[in-house]
Amino acid sequence: MLTVNAYAATSATEPLAPTTIERRDLGPDDVLIDIRFSGICHSDIHTARSEWGPARYPIVVGHEIAGVVREVGSAVTKFAVGDRVGVGCLVDSCRECDNCRKGLEQYCRNGSTGTYGGVGRDGEPTQGGYSQAIVVTEDFVLRIPDGIELDAAAPLLCAGITTYSPLRHWNAGPGRRVAVIGMGGLGHMAVKLAHAMGAEVTVLSQSLKKREDGLRLGADHYYATSDEDTFTTLAGSFDLIINTVSATLDMDAYLRLLAVDGTLVNVGAPEKPLSVHAFSLIPARRSFAGSNIGGIAETQEMLDFCAEHGLGAEIEVIPAEKINEAYERVLASDVRYRFVIDASTF
Q1: What is the model's pLDDT at position 74?
Q2: Of 107, 71, 69, nearest to 89 (Cα)?
Q3: What is the pLDDT at residue 6?
Q4: Cβ(306)–Cβ(156) under 8 Å?
């Protein structure tokens, strides 16, 4: 087995710390990837701190992985040594249920296997991208097109696909009015993607401090939700709202911003339940929905779309020793817009 350097959470309250982990021996269908960059997702923080339920410690998080193929198994046909590749939130699924057969591995009826915090077919816990290398079956490896730098590509494997999937599913495009709640790691990608799809894009952010950035990234309009007039001015305005924040919001207020047949899609995952009044939905046939990441085929589609349109994440690259500091800055909304760890520093 391959031993690699990594950073792990050892409890819900202790800082992440350097460690070593073992990667499984390369099987016939496996790809060994030298990780170059690993994005920091808010999900990493939730998991490391057991905020979504108890984590199995020690745990190495990270599911925005970009790197280069070092070695391939004897039966691998999709990748070769030297290829630029990525790994997102999934490393396996049952591959047999109706959802998996439709390319919806993220909704596997038998439970997909997360890049970290899951259990692999070998019975061992999966460990993520805050490490030097990873071994993944080729069916769950993505090809990163040459048009995207690896550091800017890493966050696309979660933040990119998490926003691309609902935008595609609910038909964001010309003639559609799309609002994005939050201008963070997910929100800034939602703005870029919706704009590239041709939609009219509005950012709904707590304040106007990121307005210049929002307009630069493709927003047509930018409103502060701390201003009560915003909810009066924009009532009934949108066909689709993507909520990217992981905080408890007044969902009724946001639902009233939807036009008839509009949909509000939650991709942020707050710790506490969200409350919705039935009469925020009924009078305009509105829908309140949720969306996970995308399947493997859709994630590859997203990467190709980003390369075609020159899209990547807005990033700040950090060394591994600054991971804990970065966590606190994420919680303080002090990042524009995604921290990416230089894996050579593990």
Answers
A1: 98
A2: 107
A3: 98
A4: yes
Q: Identify the pLDDT of residue 91.
A: 98
Residues 6+ positions from 188 with CB-CB distance below 8 Å: 213, 214, 217, 313, 314, 336, 337, 338
Tell me if 28 sits within 8 A of 146, measured CB to CB. Answer: no
What's the pLDDT score for residue 13? 96
DSSP state of 99: H
Question: Low-confidence residues of the chain, pLDDT below 70?
Answer: none
Q: Which two tokens stand for residue 297?
A: 């085929």
Non-local CB neighbours of 300 within 8 Å, separated by 6+ positions:
142, 143
First to last CA, the chain: 19
What pTM was estimated for this model as a whole? 0.95
Indicate the length of the chain as a whole number. Answer: 346
Phi/psi class of residue 95: alpha, beta or left (left: φ > 0; alpha: ψ in -120 to 50)? Answer: left
DSSP H helices, 218-295, are 229-233, 251-255
Contacts of residue 203, Cβ cutoff 8 Å, sequence gap at least 6 = 179, 180, 183, 187, 191, 210, 211, 214, 219, 221, 222, 223
pLDDT at 115: 98
**Distance, CA of 19 to chain centre:** 25
DSSP 241: E
The answer to whether residues 185 and 155 touch, using CB atoms and an 8 Å cutoff, is yes
Mean pLDDT of the chain: 96
- Rounded Cα–Cα distance for residues 221 and 183 (Å): 13
Q: Which residues contact 158 (CB under 8 A, 6 or more apart)?
A: 39, 41, 43, 63, 64, 88, 89, 293
Residues 6+ apart with CB under 8 A from 43: 61, 63, 89, 158, 269
